[in-house]
Amino acid sequence: MADKKMNFFEKMQALDRRYIYLVVALAIIIPLLVPFNSKTYVTEPTENIYKKIDSFSGRNDRAVLLCFDHDASTMAELFPMEVAILRHCFERDVQVFTICFMPTAKPLMDYALQTAKEGYEVQSGVDYVNFGFRPWAIRIPTMLKMGDDISEAVEYDDEGRKLTNLPIMKEIMNYNEMNLVVDFAASAAVLSWITYARARFGANVAAGVTAVMAADNYIYLQTGQLIGMLGGLKGAAEYEKLVDVFACHMEPDENGIMQPAPRDFSKEIIKNTWIKMSDIKNRMHKTARIGMNAQTVAHLMIIVFIILGNIGYFISKRKKNKVN
Amino acid sequence: MKRQIPLLIVIILGFIFVIHVFVPHKASADFYDWYQTWIKAISPFMVLLGIMSLFMVHSTKIKRKVPNWQYSVVTLASLIGTGAVGFIWGTQAGTPFMWLFKNVQMPMGATMFSLLAFYIASAAYKAFRARSTEATVLLIAAIIVMLGQVPIGIKISKLIPEASHWILNVPNLAAKRGIAMGVGLGMTATSLKILLGIERTYMGGGK
């Protein structure tokens, strides 16, 4: 009996990797096709970004800059957080600017704006401005110039309009007003915002990064150089939840018809809130949370693989020692 | 002269920029504005240089029929095709450029990155072994962080997300900060060597 078990583990040790690929593929695809309810646990770095953006609500002298520093390969992790933040801004009447310094990020930025705009009557130049693409070579000069005058650093928006002529720019001059920069990156790009916008002009900087890059940014969170961070799909799922619970909150009116009733952030509410996947009408707004289901199963599969591999390793090792 | 003039430009401009950071004089600010205008004018030529380089490398590969030269044809055709649709119909929503982005670039990019999940799973199974004390610590830390990053972690125990948070905020942070300081010191030393003309390999030639 014992021999048979050992043979099984030995066989498992030599398992063709194509079977592993198949199991991983199924572990990811099935939860995406059949979403299940899972509770998203919101962390402090995410809360901090939410609260900062929310504090700009309804103010013409405050704006958020979203910088898109990634291409389509990392879209699965970063796109949901971009849409969630844009949706938060549109829902809570927060002025928002978008910019990118990578040619491959430009269509992504446009796509994120198009996606987030659906269902909102927001107007370019009034509620938001797309600064468009600027070459990477002028990234640092642009960051620095924004510290003096944004409309000199960028001059024209993506539609070719002079920034000084846009209503949204009336009370926005530099980082004193555009007081939050959120950089979405799959690289160390956020570091340049910390170095130039934060250190030199005191702008608040936050990061939306892939899970792989998140570990690199904890040092800046601890020092306060980053006010918050969305790490990978988990960060995106957390932000999606905050937007649903607070910014997009709805309550029934006298006739029982659900009406928008945004509310302020509260730790107590978030602690006791449970949103079922089936309760959210638009699937686009729960992309990250559905993705987290797949990530949960995939992580469990990897852990099972590690445990199985190690059991097999120790059994083989013991057998070899016995033979010797 | 071919080496001395670029070297002089780097040394002089390098020191000017260092001075600019520390001297808030009008002349310093004016110089920086002048520099920004120049960099804006120069940057489009860098894109042009990149395209020319890409064309030269891949057309040579096609001419010489080197192994896998067919990929070079695809690269050049994609470059010309994507550029052409962008110039002809624009890049706004509903244009062929956006169609190409959504239906070609997005899925291809996502496919490339998603391969990582398969390789990680395979590598975890085949190579992640508790062969030594250090490897065992790494393995346990990896399992805790993996569980702490997904909703099931908190369901198993409230301690898992807390332990994951501690691992990321204490040991990870200490190691990362050490690396960052090392990199910072290295960058400063290299920058000084470039400014003083000691480090010249960036000019090519290897000497």
Structural class of chain A: alpha/beta
Give the SSE order of chain B as H and E letters: HHHHHHHH
What number of domains of chain A? 2
* Distance N to C terminus of chain A: 23 Å
pLDDT averaged residue by residue of chain A:
89
Which consecutive residue ranges of chain B, at least 5 long each, have pLDDT under 50? none
In terms of quaternary structure, the protein is: heterodimer
Q: What's the overall geometry of chain B?
A: extended
State the helicity of chain B in percent bands: over 70%
What number is the mean pLDDT of chain B?
89
The H/E string of chain A reads HHHEHEHEHHEHEHEHEEHH
**Widest sheet, order of strands of chain A:** 3-2-1-4-5-6
Helix content of chain A: 40-55%
- What Rg of chain A, in angstroms, do the CA atoms define? 23 Å
Percent of residues in beta strands of chain B? under 5%
Supply the CATH class of the largest domain in chain A. Answer: Alpha Beta
Query: How many β-strand stretches of chain A?
Result: 8
Key traits:
heterodimer; A: 324 residues; alpha/beta; Rossmann fold; six-stranded parallel β-sheet; two-stranded antiparallel ribbon; 8 strands; 51% helix; globular; B: 207 residues; mainly alpha; 8 helices; 0% strand
Task: Give a description of the structure.
The complex is a heterodimer of chains A (324) and B (207). Chain A is α/β, with parallel strands linked by helices. Chain A folds into 2 domains: 71 residues; 230 residues, Rossmann fold (3-Layer(aba) Sandwich). Helices cover 51% and strands 13% of the residues of chain A. In chain A, helix 1 crosses helix 12, helix 4 crosses helix 5 and helix 4 runs parallel beside helix 10. The model of chain A has no long low-confidence stretch (mean pLDDT 89). Chain B has 207 residues and is mostly helical. Chain B has a domain of 77 residues. Chain B is built from 8 helices and no strands. In chain B, helix 2 crosses helix 3, helix 5 crosses helix 7 and helix 7 packs parallel to helix 8. The radius of gyration of chain B is 26 Å and the shape is extended. The mean pLDDT of chain B is 89. At the A-B interface, helix 2, helix 5, helix 6, helix 9 and helix 12 of A face helix 2, helix 4, helix 5, helix 6 and helix 7 of B.
